[in-house]
Specification:
By secondary structure, the protein is α+β, with helices and mostly antiparallel strands. It has two domains: 258 residues, Aminohydrolase, N-terminal nucleophile (Ntn) domain (Glutamine Phosphoribosylpyrophosphate, subunit 1, domain 1), CATH 3.60.20; 212 residues, Rossmann fold, CATH 3.40.50.2020. Helix content is 39%, strand content 17%. It contains 21 helices and 19 strands. Strands 4-5-6-7-11-12 form a six-stranded antiparallel sheet, with helices on one face. It has a five-stranded parallel sheet with strand order 14-13-17-18-19, sandwiched between helices. A three-stranded antiparallel sheet has the order 2-1-3, with helices on one face. A hairpin with an 8-residue loop joins strand 4 and strand 5. Helix 9 crosses helix 11 and helix 15 crosses helix 18. The chain starts with 10 loop residues before the first strand and ends in an 8-residue tail after the last helix.
């Protein structure tokens, strides 16, 4: 869990399933804590139980059977979860795992996951239940209710050995979204399942003693001291099921579909310590080097290159690699062409030229501002970064800083550009290793409000500049008059962007984000869609950039998010 702390800072939870427990004793336990220190607090509580028992029974560790009986969280099947509060309030009630209790022990169920569903209302309506408003605001609430519904039906038919494959097939066929979810069942079984498009990531390792599944491969490698080839990816539409005897099953539960694994995982969300993600982020940065060179008119002598924030560091190395390749080629060409005319000193001076690299910005607070609650983001971004003084030739140097993505642009406008301008550069170029984020994400990395996206704001501003506001009204009327089925068939929001090139939108973004008091010229360079797919060939999910959603529910989310914007409604579009 600690090795995946990057996946959740708002809370955490664990659950344990004990096998072969005597009747009358609790066999399923759960502990949840909210707040940034949740992991530490959870394991402090677990370790305190051990310490208290050791005081009373110093030799208890020599008797694992008794130890299992005394310790709540010692069991055969365990589950841990880290939460980002993208939906619902940031309190312990929304932390995973959730528990669905039942008077029948075999029907008890606890679940946790990495996902968003876009059809929770439909799921609740199909179950004919009466969920509270709190339950409706939790996707996991709808998911666990649905799985439990089919678990009860199957257990009624086969009380001794319910078919968990059938249960998951029936339940997941109702889900629209991206998900990786794990569950512990009262009969001793456990499972992890993945959506048919493979939107959310999942990896597993299996040997004679342990079966482990996690969202990120390095977490398994480090914890169990494994090589990359030891770990496998859970295929889209498959579920790993382990029964009470420890038998391992990898079963298809959903029909095959095009794999559209989330590319934003590779750009930003997952840790860069994964071997493949590291290479991909290097490629993302290197792919931007030509655009940067054109933007600075190939003047590397008066250009300083840096990165903001720390998650952009690997892409920064890739950008430097591309710039240095250009510089080396120039050096080689000049030496070859002029080798009989150049002095030894001139050759030495030429080959010792380097791209100027400085640590310009320092992040003081380990917070992800694009996911932070709206009420606190504006105050926070003003204090996230500080600068390194004395690095820039005033009025001469261009600062090139690479970011992993520009979602809202809030941090740039309210903090970074002002901070960098204090160094008095001639020009500031912000480079995004991700393309322009134009549409909501609804499959796990929750970016849901159209009006928040600086790319959307730029498109709206361009429509106004060109007297084309009627296109906004026309797209709204199409959404408003469409049936629910039509909203799922076509993404009408694409019309907002159609009249403008990516460069025009990038230029407008730069104009919108530049504070009035900043004296340096400001430009923004974005990754192209082609560059993204070239760099991340196995993660083709790009709906937040292109509007091409892998499920019908995604189109509906985009259309409803646009309607919310036009009607000045708060909240997400699903």
């Amino acid at each position: 869990m600690e090795k995946q702390h990057n996946r959740g800072q708002d809370g955490a939870g664990i659950a344990t399933l004990k096998l072969n427990v005597e009747p009358g004793y609790q066999y399923m336990h759960r502990l949840r804590v909210s707040g940034s220190g949740a992991i530490k607090e959870i394991f402090n509580q677990v370790n305190n139980e051990v310490s208290e028992l050791e005081k009373m029974y110093p030799d208890l560790k020599k008797h694992p059977g008794l130890l299992k009986g005394y310790l709540r969280f010692m069991g055969e099947a365990m589950m841990g979860h880290l939460r980002y509060g993208t939906q619902g309030r940031n309190n312990v009630a929304f932390c995973h795992p959730f528990v669905k209790p039942d008077i029948n022990p075999a029907r008890n169920l606890t679940m946790a996951g990495n996902f968003n569903l876009v059809n929770t209302d439909e799921l609740y309506n199909a179950l004919e239940g009466n969920p509270t408003e709190e339950e409706r605001s939790s996707d996991l609430g709808a998911m666990i209710q649905t799985v439990h519904h089919y678990l009860c039906k199957e257990e009624a038919l086969s009380p001794e050995n319910p078919d968990l494959v059938k249960v998951l097939q029936q339940a997941t066929s109702k889900f629209d979204g991206g998900f990786v979810c794990g569950g512990l069942v009262g009969n001793g079984s456990s499972f992890v399942m993945r959506d048919k498009n493979g939107i959310r990531p999942a990896y597993y390792y299996q040997d004679d003693e342990v079966i482990v599944v996690a969202s990120e491969r390095p977490a398994i490698q480090t914890t169990f001291d494994l090589q990359i080839e030891d770990i496998k990816e859970l295929e889209p539409g498959h579920a790993i099921i382990v029964d009470a005897e420890g038998k391992f099953h990898n079963e298809r539960i959903l029909e095959a579909a095009p794999k559209t694994a989330c590319s934003f995982e590779r750009i930003y969300f997952s840790r860069g310590s994964d071997a493949d993600i590291y290479k991909e982020r290097i490629a993302l940065g290197e792919n931007l080097s030509d655009d940067v060179l054109k933007a600075i008119d190939y003047d590397l002598k008066n250009t300083i290159v840096s990165f903001i924030p720390n998650t952009a560091e690997i892409a920064f190395y890739g950008l430097i690699k591309g710039l240095e390749t250009f510089l080396k080629n120039i050096e080689a060409d000049r030496i070859i062409k002029n080798k009989h005319k150049m002095t030894d000193e001139e050759i030495r001076e030429l080959i010792h030229r380097r791209v100027r690299i400085e640590k310009i910005a320092i992040k003081d607070v380990k917070l992800r501002t694009f996911i932070t609650e709206d009420s606190s983001r504006d105050e926070m971004v003003q204090h996230v970064y500080d600068i390194t003084y004395g690095t820039v030739k005033k009025g001469l140097d261009t600062l090139v800083v690479i970011d992993d993505s520009i979602v809202r642009g809030t941090t740039l406008k309210q903090s970074i550009l002002t901070m960098l301008d204090r160094l008095k550069p001639k020009r500031i170029i912000v480079v995004s290793s991700a393309p322009q984020i134009r549409y909501p994400d609804c499959y796990g990395i929750d970016m849901s409000k159209m009006g928040d996206f600086i790319a959307f704001q730029a498109a709206v501003a361009l429509l106004k500049d060109h007297g084309k506001e009627h296109l906004m009204t026309e797209a709204y009327e199409l959404c408003k008059n469409a049936s629910d089925e039509q909203l799922m068939q076509e993404n009408y929001v694409k019309r907002i962007y159609n009249d403008f090139t990516p460069q025009e939108i990038s230029d407008k973004i730069a104009a919108l984000l530049k504070p009035e008091h900043v004296t340096a010229e400001v430009n923004i360079i974005y990754q192209s869609i082609e560059g993204l797919h070239k760099s991340c060939p196995n993660n083709t999910g790009d709906w937040y950039f292109t509007g091409n959603y892998p499920t019908k529910g995604g189109n509906r989310v985009a259309n409803k998010a646009f309607m919310n914007y036009m009607e000045r409604k708060e909240g997400r579009g699903y």
